[in-house]
Amino acid sequence: MNLNAIRPVGPHIEGFIRFASEGEGETLRQLNHFEVLSRVHQNSDGGAPKLTQHPIASKLGEITPNKEAGQINEIPVRLLFNSPENNLSARYEAYDTDLNRLVCAGNGENFSRASLISGQTTTGPCPGPDLCAYANDGGVQCHLKVRLKVQIEGQGDPFSIFELQSGSINTYRTVSAKLQMMHAAFNGKLRHVPLTLTIWDKSSAESEYAPFYCADLKLEKEETMSSANKKAEQGALEDTNAGLTIDAMETAVKQMRTEGVLSLDGSEDAVITFTQNRIPGKAARRTMAAPVGDDISSVIALAKAAVNLAAAPDMTVRAPDVAVESVASAAPQPALEQKALITETVPFDNNETPPTPI
């Protein structure tokens, strides 16, 4: 193995933040609070190993709103970077279900794909999981992965982070908008801004108007834009006076992301996807994976494919995908997860179709 080819993908991850869940398999349900996990697994009742609670979770439980609720609804956080892109990322990731390896990563426009046989990497246009023949082929599962890097008050290592992991496009849109606005309002300074990671719920036609939960970033209570800006400026001044070159650190992390596109460490993936499948069966996937262009003929071709699917006696087209993080009060949804990379969840069925986040 060429050790020079091993690239870090970002800061060291001390632990994970994600929405709590209950049940397994088809009874897996999203809950309305966070859990903060370590990177240590523990066997439970003879089932698959699960990530254990991080010690800092007990401290978070003593915060007044969390103590009153009896669960973690709010987490005081700071950002390590000023750049929104270094703090937040979202991309489609496809895993080989036999080898349990990341084989393709795309942003909806372009992809980088590795052949685990030849060792070569190719690039090309990324249409997203719904319209990608590769993503819908047997042996591959492709999902949206959203990652927000934060530091929790009270953690010890200033160079490690906790990673909020989600499969929700709603979470990504919300947090991305907040970061862009704060970055502009605070003169490019996101580091040291006093923030709280919170939960909000919504419903939509796609969720059949049942509520589901998403993550959000807000200023800490009692903080105004003016007071938060002063703390960000004061923190930046202290960094400069201490001789810290934060811009150089930002550049180093950006370089990690660029060089480590397909170097994701499987142990860093703790996301649970709460979503309904759209079309079961490999044949259905391949039919719907027909390429679609901007011309009317392509649109008609896809429409005909959908009609043929609906008429097929051995296939049924399910209702549109439930909004990820999915519906908390609706019927239980199956979990689509990597078999080895996410050992705290049940294995997914290779015949199931990856969801399209909304």
Overview of the structural elements:
- The protein contains 8 helices and 12 strands.
- It is of the alpha+beta class.
- It has a domain at 13-87 and 146-268.
- Strands 1, 2, 3, 4, 5, 6, 7, 8, 9, 10, 11 and 12 form a 12-stranded mixed beta sheet that branches.
- It is globular and about 55 Å long.
- Residues 264-271 and 273-358 have low confidence and may be disordered.
Descriptive tags:
358 residues; alpha+beta; twelve-stranded mixed β-sheet; 12 strands; 26% strand; globular
Radius of gyration: 21 Å
Profile the largest sheet: 12 strands, mixed
What general form does the structure show? globular
Strand content: 25-35%
Task: Return the average pLDDT rounded to an integer.
Answer: 76
Class from helix and strand fractions:
alpha+beta
Q: Helical residue percent? A: 10-25%
Order of helices and strands: EEEHHEHEEEEEEHEEHHHH
Low-confidence stretches: 264-271, 273-358
Euclidean distance between termini CA atoms: 40 Å
Topology of helices and strands:
Layout: E1 12-22, E2 29-42, E3 50-53, H1 56-60, H2 64-69, E4 75-78, H3 84-87, E5 88-96, E6 101-106, E7 110-114, E8 121-125, E9 140-152, E10 160-166, H4 169-185, E11 195-202, E12 212-219, H5 225-241, H6 246-259, H7 282-288, H8 296-311
Parallel strand pairs: 1-10
Antiparallel strand pairs: 1-2, 2-3, 4-9, 4-11, 5-6, 5-9, 6-7, 7-8, 9-10, 11-12
Short description, anyone?
By secondary structure, the protein is of the alpha+beta class. The protein is built from 8 helices and 12 strands.
